[in-house]
Design goal:
heterodimer; A: mainly alpha; MetI-like fold; 14 helices; about 75% helix; about 0% strand; B: about 375 residues; four-stranded antiparallel beta sheet; about 55% helix; elongated; transmembrane (chain A); MetI-like_sf (chain A)
Chain lengths: ~325, ~375
C-alpha cells in the first residue's frame, strides 16, 4: 500500500512537473518577448520570434522522449550489430555471418513467415465474416462484444488459457484439456499438441488469431457500414445473389480497410514474443525472431551483438509497411 | 439489411454460425474461470465441463493412528470417517492397491489373522482385530462419488502464498503513471503538430507515423545499456519504477501523438481562429478549448495505453527485472507457468486475476476503445 501511495505521489509530481513546465515555459516566453505596452515595431518582431519558438516548447518533451526511446536506439542497434557481445569491440560482419549460418535463425525465420501468412489471413478472414454476419442479426452487438473480448487479455494470460485447452494427460487418465477430451470423445488418440514439430506452430498461432479477430472485426464492421446503400440496392435490382453482393460489391469497396487491418496485424505478428515464450520458449521447433532476440539479449549474460542482428532482421521486415504508411499519411495530409 | 427482410433459411444459418463462433471464442475464457473456482482435487482429475456433475474419484487414505484404538469386548477397534464430514458417498473400498475396489460399501472385508475392515457409505470405517494394532496406520483404498464443490480457496492461495497480491499492487504502480504521463506529453505535441505553423512539421508527422511501427526489439538493447549507465551514474540501479514509466511513455508516444493529432486536426478551425483573433495565446487555446473538446480521444488513448501497459510482459521483464519485489502480474504468471506448470488450480486462478482488471475496463469502456481503434489504425 505504501508503494501504491508513493506511486500516486510520484504520478501527481510528474503531472505537476509537466504542467509547471508547459505553463512556466510559456509564461517565460511571454516575459522575454513581451507584446503588451511596447512600440508596434517591437511587438511585431517579438510576436514573430515567440511564435517561432512556442511550437518547440509544446513539442519539446515529446521529441526528447521519442529520440531517446525510439530514434537513437534504432541507430545504436545498427551500430551494435557490428560489435561483439559486450558491445565494445568492433567485429565487422561476423554477427551477420553467424546469423545466416545458424540453423536456429532459419528455423525462426521460417516460423515467422508461417505466422505472417497464417495469422493476418485468418484473423482478417474471420473478422470479415463475423462483421458481415453480425450486422444482420438483432443480437449482433452482444456477439461482437464477446468476440472482441480477447483483445483485453494479455498474451501471457491467453497463453495460460490455451495451454489449459491443449493440456495432455498420458496413460489412461481422464483428459482435462478440452481439445484432447474432444479428440477422445470422437475416438481419437490424445496428443501432446504443443510438442508436435511443425504443427505445433499452428496451435500457437490460433492463440493470436483468437485475440486479433476482434480487432479485425471492429474495423471492418465500421467500414462495411460506410458502404453506400445505393450500390447494394442497385446490385439487388440487377439480380445479384448474396455471395455476389458480398464479393463483388462490398469487398472491393473496403479493400483499403482490409489492407490496413492486414498490415496492422502483420506488424503485431512480427513482434510476437510472449506467446512463444510462455507456451514453448522456442522448443520443439517453434522459435520465432522476437523470442530469439530476447533469448540472445540475456543468454549467458547477454550477447548484445547477436541480439541486435536479430532485431535488425525484424526491423527490415517492417520497413516496407512503414514506408507505405508514411506515404498514405502524407497523401492524407495534403488532402487536408 | 437485405437478408434480414425475409425469413429465409439463410437467416437461420447466419444465427447458427454466429452462435457457433461466439461459443468458440468464449469457451476458452469460460473454461479458465470455471476451473479457477473448482476444488483442486476435482480439477486435476476431471475436465471443467463436468464441473456440475458428480465425480467419481479413487482415493487412498490412511486410517487413524493405532494409538487411537479402543477395546470393545474382545476386539481392538480403530474408528474414523474417510470423508471428514464433507458430503459424498463411498461406493467401493479395498485394503490393497491391487484390488482397490474389492468390496461394496457396507460390506465387511476380512483381512489377515481375523482382522476386519468395514466401510459404510457415509465414510465411517472400523478396523477391528482380536489383537492390539501396532505400527503404522492402515491404508484404505476407496472410491467415492463426490458432488461438485466450488471454492474460492484457489484465489486465497495465489493471493497470499504465491505472491499475486503483491504483483497486483506492482502492476497498478506501473500502470497508472505510465498511462497518465504520455497523455499529457502527447496532447501538447499533437496540438502543435495540428494547429501551429513551423518549419519541419510535415517531417515530424512523417517521423511519428514511421515510429508507430518500429519494433520494440530495436530499442531494447541500446536502452538497457543506457539505463545501466544512468543507474550507475545516480547510484540507484537500472531497474526502477521511474525507468519503466518513462519507457512506457516513450513507446506509447507515437500512437498517442498520431491518434490525438488526427482528432485535434479535425476540430473546427473557426473556433481556434476566432480565439486567436481575440488575443488568446496558444497555451490558452490548448488549455481552454482543445483539452475539453478532445476528451473522447484522450479517453480512447488512455484505455489503449492502460491495456497495453497492464498486459505488457516484455518491457516489464527488461526494465523492471525478475526479482520478487518488482514482479508485475504478467511476469508473475510467467514464473508460475514455469514453476507450477501442472498445478492448474494455481495457474487458472492466477491467470484470472491478471485478466480481470482489463476485462472490467474493456466491458465498461468498450465504446471509447472501439472509437480509438477506428482512429488509430493508419487510414
Amino acid at each position: 500500500m505504501a508503494q501504491l501511495a508513493s506511486a500516486l505521489v510520484t504520478m501527481i509530481l510528474g503531472v505537476l512537473g509537466c504542467a509547471v513546465y508547459f505553463y512556466g515555459s510559456n509564461i517565460l516566453l511571454d516575459k522575454i518577448f513581451p507584446t503588451k505596452n511596447r512600440p508596434a515595431q517591437q511587438v511585431a518582431s517579438n510576436l514573430r520570434i515567440a511564435n517561432s519558438i512556442r511550437p518547440w516548447l509544446f513539442l519539446g518533451p515529446a521529441v526528447l522522449l521519442l529520440t531517446f526511446y525510439l530514434f537513437y536506439p534504432v541507430i545504436d542497434s545498427i551500430r551494435l550489430s557490428f560489435f561483439d557481445r559486450s558491445g565494445e569491440e568492433f567485429v565487422g560482419l561476423s554477427n551477420y555471418v553467424w546469423l545466416f549460418g545458424s540453423d536456429e535463425f532459419f528455423e525462426s525465420f521460417r516460423n515467422n513467415m508461417l505466422w505472417l501468412i497464417v495469422v493476418p489471413t485468418a484473423a482478417t478472414f474471420f473478422g470479415l465474416i463475423i462483421a458481415t454476419m453480425t450486422d444482420r442479426i438483432w443480437w449482433g452487438n452482444i456477439a461482437k462484444s464477446l468476440i472482441f473480448m480477447p483483445m483485453a487479455i494479455s498474451f501471457i494470460g491467453a497463453s495460460v488459457i490455451w495451454k489449459f485447452i491443449y493440456d495432455f494427460r498420458s496413460g489412461g487418465d481422464a483428459q482435462i484439456g478440452l481439445l484432447n477430451a474432444v479428440v477422445v470423445f470422437f475416438g481419437g488418440e490424445p496428443q501432446n499438441w504443443i510438442t508436435i514439430p511443425f504443427w505445433n506452430n499452428f496451435f500457437l498461432m490460433i492463440i493470436l488469431v483468437w485475440i486479433q479477430t476482434g480487432f479485425a472485426m471492429v474495423i471492418l464492421s465500421a467500414a462495411l457500414r460506410g458502404i453506400p446503400d445505393e450500390t447494394i440496392e442497385a446490385a439487388v435490382l440487377d439480380g445479384a445473389n448474396g455471395l455476389q453482393i458480398f464479393f463483388k460489391i462490398m469487398v472491393p469497396q473496403i479493400w483499403g480497410t482490409i489492407a490496413v487491418v492486414w498490415t496492422t496485424i502483420t506488424i503485431l505478428v512480427l513482434k510476437v514474443f510472449d506467446i512463444v515464450l510462455a507456451m514453448t520458449n522456442g522448443q520443439w521447433d517453434t522459435q520465432v525472431l522476437a523470442n530469439q532476440m530476447f533469448d540472445w539479449m540475456f543468454r549467458g549474460g547477454g550477447d548484445f551483438g547477436r541480439g541486435a542482428v536479430v532485431a535488425i532482421v525484424i526491423m527490415v521486415l517492417v520497413i516496407p509497411i512503414m514506408v507505405w504508411n508514411i506515404k498514405r499519411a502524407n497523401a492524407e495530409m495534403e488532402g487536408r | 439489411m437485405i437478408a434480414s427482410s425475409k425469413r429465409s433459411p439463410l437467416t437461420y444459418l447466419v444465427h447458427a454460425t454466429v452462435l457457433f463462433l461466439v461459443v468458440i471464442w468464449t469457451i476458452p475464457t469460460a473454461g479458465l474461470f470455471i476451473s479457477s473456482i473448482r476444488d483442486k482435487d476435482q480439477l486435476s482429475v476431471s475436465g471443467w465441463w463436468t464441473a456440475l456433475s458428480t465425480s467419481e474419484q479413487l482415493i487412498i487414505a490412511r486410517a487413524n493412528d493405532p494409538k487411537t484404538q479402543v477395546q470393545e469386548g474382545d476386539l481392538f477397534v480403530i474408528r474414523g470417517n474417510l470423508l471428514d464430514g464433507s458430503s459424498g458417498d463411498v461406493t467401493k473400498f479395498g485394503s490393497s492397491s491391487l484390488e482397490p475396489e474389492a468390496f461394496d460399501a457396507g460390506a465387511v472385508a476380512d483381512l489377515r489373522k481375523g482382522q476386519t475392515l468395514q466401510v459404510m457409505e457415509n465414510g465411517d470405517y472400523a478396523f477391528s482385530s482380536p489383537t492390539p494394532w501396532e505400527g503404522r496406520s492402515q491404508r484404505i483404498f476407496y472410491t467415492a462419488e463426490i458432488p461438485p464443490r466450488f471454492t474460492l480457496d484457489n484465489y486465497r492461495e495465489v493471493l497470499s502464498t504465491e505472491g499475486l497480491g503483491k504483483s497486483f499492487l506492482n502492476s497498478l504502480t506501473v500502470t497508472i503513471p505510465a498511462t497518465i504521463i504520455p497523455i499529457l506529453v502527447a496532447a501538447f505535441a499533437a496540438y502543435a503538430l495540428a494547429w501551429m505553423r513551423f518549419p519541419g512539421r510535415a517531417l515530424l508527422v512523417a517521423a511519428v507515423v514511421g515510429l508507430l511501427v518500429v519494433p520494440l526489439q530495436m530499442s531494447l538493447i541500446p536502452l538497457l545499456k543506457s539505463y545501466n549507465l544512468i543507474g550507475e551514474f545516480f547510484g540507484v540501479g537500472s531497474k526502477t519504477y521511474v525507468g519503466i514509466w518513462l519507457a512506457h511513455t516513450g513507446f506509447g508516444l507515437p500512437l498517442a501523438i498520431y491518434l490525438l493529432r488526427n482528432y485535434i486536426a479535425g476540430l473546427p478551425g473557426e473556433i481556434i481562429e476566432s480565439a486567436r483573433v481575440d488575443g488568446a495565446s496558444d497555451f490558452d487555446i490548448f488549455r481552454k478549448i482543445i483539452l475539453p473538446l478532445s476528451f473522447p480521444a484522450l479517453a480512447s488513448f488512455a484505455i489503449f495505453q492502460f491495456l497495453w501497459v497492464w498486459n505488457d510482459l516484455l518491457i516489464a521483464m527488461v526494465f523492471l527485472g525478475n526479482n520478487e519485489e518488482h514482479l508485475v502480474l504478467t511476469g508473475q504468471l510467467r514464473e508460475l507457468l514455469g514453476s507450477r506448470g501442472g498445478n492448474w488450480e494455481i495457474l487458472t486462478a492466477s491467470a484470472f486475476i491478471t485478466i480481470i482488471v482489463p476485462l472490467c475496463v474493456f466491458f465498461s469502456l468498450q465504446r471509447y476503445l472501439v472509437r480509438g481503434l477506428l482512429a488509430g489504425s493508419v487510414k
